[in-house]
Amino acid sequence: MSSGPLTEMKAKIFFLRNDPPQNTQPLFFKTIGPLSVRRSDYISHRATRVWLVEPIASRQNVESTGETCLLVLKDTWSDIDAQTEKEIQDALFNDIKCFSKRLANAVDSGDWSLLEPDERDAFGSLMDKEKEPAKNLLRDEGYRKHFVTILQDWKGRTLKPPGSQAESIRAVPLFYQSRPRQYPGKTQHRVLCKEICEPLDDVKTFGEVIVGMEGAVSAMLILFLAGWVHRDISASNVMMYQGQGVLGDLEVAKRFRVRHQHSDEDFLKGTPYFMATEIYKGFTQARYPRPTIRTWDFTLNPKPDKRIPFQHNFLHDLESIWWILLWTMLQRVPFAPSHQYAAGLFVNTRNIPQAREEAFVAGGALISSLFTSLHPCFLIRDFDCTVDLLRCEMGDTCDFFDISRGSSNVWSIL
């Protein structure tokens, strides 16, 4: 989470306490500096702010307690009935721990009926060479190092919901306009995190971005095996910590139930720059064309657009990783043709830009544009073909993934 250079700001005092109090004293923290401070353009709540903080004794005694190192404090607003991020992470870790135990027992006994049907499908979808590394990720709670550590959280005051006649100034895709949008009240949440991470949109080298994405994919594999989806993969939520990629910001993460259909919970979840195409559009996508390598010979294999109800699934999270890769190659490299092409793909809007849809659905538009807009250092390494082949693999995988039948046996295809 980063917003570039910021002007110097006065120190603030934040406190965390249980509400209602549970025989514990409130914890006080003094800000050292801002990590992310943005103004909100939403009618329903304020923007998230993130600070570097140090513990202090009280409001009156602002000297450092010296008990611990610097920490990260996030001040955010969530729906009034939403869980805190720590509650979500605790539920996630509990599901991972339970799955890990069932998997270990199933492997030791050879009795795979010890796993739930969806768990058998998920683990069975891994190739043989992937299964041992997957078990290593789960062993001895090793999965925790792939996520930001949340130490404390706190619920604060509540904002009243907007009036009944309130309307968003943002354009809403046609599919979503048929369902009345509700604007619930918002509750303030403060979250204290242990690691001081560097988001991918701030790292200095392309190699670090790749390492960060590898770490995020490992975290997403853990989520997949435990039956969860993140729903907001972005260059701010994938971060580097001590040379490893970690995944943060679990505010909208939830359990994935393959036999459930689309719900209002999935209303345009995610960051527009990195949002999956289906989430952007609100319905299932036609099959993506597969190129003949280096010939640019594309043949669309059309598939009837039935606008089948769907929900946010792990394939959408994987597509967000793909958009992070493309955004990094186009936007963060100082090369004017790349920036010109990126301007049509990455737009902060709730209606999918035409150029973005064509890039992901009609592959010929993507690879021809990459050939003329990518920096030469990427072209000599065939990154244009690599990016497009990844897009094709995701398209083929969508054909195998049938949300209506509850199939989740697709990880190894990717």
From TrEMBL:
Q: Where is the Fungal-type protein kinase domain?
A: 38-328
Q: Record's Pfam families?
A: Pkinase_fungal
Regions crossing the membrane:
none
Position of the signal peptide: none
**Gene3D superfamilies under this entry?**
Transferase(Phosphotransferase) domain 1
Family matches, as InterPro entries: Kinase-like_dom_sf, Pkinase_fungal
- Give the coiled coil ranges: none
Q: This protein is called what?
A: Fungal-type protein kinase domain-containing protein
Task: Name the species this protein comes from.
Answer: Crepidotus variabilis
